[in-house]
Amino acid sequence: MGRSTDNLDFSLGHHPGAGDVTATIVNLTEATADHIRAERVRINQGGANTVTATDVEISQGGVSQVTAQKMTLAQGGAAFVKTVDFNLREGAAGLVNAEMAAIHNSGVGAVYGQTVDLREGTHTGVVAARQINAAANARTTVLLAGKVEGDVVTLMDTRQVVLAGLGFGAAAGLFMLIAGWFRRGK
């Protein structure tokens, strides 16, 4: 089922499954949609498969994939996000590609951007950015950054990742060399 109009407002009682939606403004409350294309999207206690919009706000909802200029996500989740400006509060995201990302008391698998702000209570897997601004209690597993301001608790920083890569490459090369010797010996 597809819908196209200037302004769509969906709620669970009227349209629990909106299907494909194209509009200027989409407000989704306690409802779901498959694909949404709009200038402005607001999702409250609902979800969507994909969203393509200029401005996206999600509160207590989720989305699989978002492409937007600006995205705000509060107490919700997103699997894949590509945006210019990303703000996450008390939520989770899988993979984020944003020029500017601000992450507050949330978890992210991987974030790539020009500037990433890791605020208190943030946990990330991999962060790669030119500039990282960090508050107390920001944690990451792998940190790749041109410049870091603040304290980040990290398992591996840029230098350690390079050294681990060199070590892994040397071990793999040595293993292949030894395996080659054993094959030639038979």
Instruction: Provide the β-strand percentage band.
Output: over 45%
Order of helices and strands: EEEEEEEEEEEH
Measured as a percent range, the helix fraction is: 10-25%
Strand order of the largest sheet: 1-2-3-4-5-6-7-8-9-10-11
Radius of gyration: 21 Å
The counted number of beta strands is 11
What oligomeric state best describes the polypeptide chains here? single chain
Query: What is the helix tally?
Result: 1
Largest sheet: 11 strands, parallel
Poorly predicted runs of 5 or more residues: none
Count of discrete structural domains: 1
The backbone outline, from C-alpha atoms, is elongated
Summing up helix and strand content along with how strands pair, one would put the structural category as: alpha/beta
Span between N and C termini? 65 Å
Average pLDDT level: 86
Task: Supply database-style keywords.
single chain; 186 residues; alpha/beta; 11-stranded parallel β-sheet; 68% strand
Provide an overview of this structure.
The chain is an alpha/beta fold and 186 residues long. The protein has one domain (2-158). The chain has one helix spanning 158-185, and strands spanning 2-11, 20-29, 32-44, 47-59, 62-74, 77-89, 92-104, 107-118, 123-134, 138-149, 152-156. Strands 1-2-3-4-5-6-7-8-9-10-11 form an 11-stranded parallel β-sheet. The longest helix has 28 residues, at 158-185. It is elongated, with a radius of gyration of 21 Å. The model has no long low-confidence stretch (mean pLDDT 86).
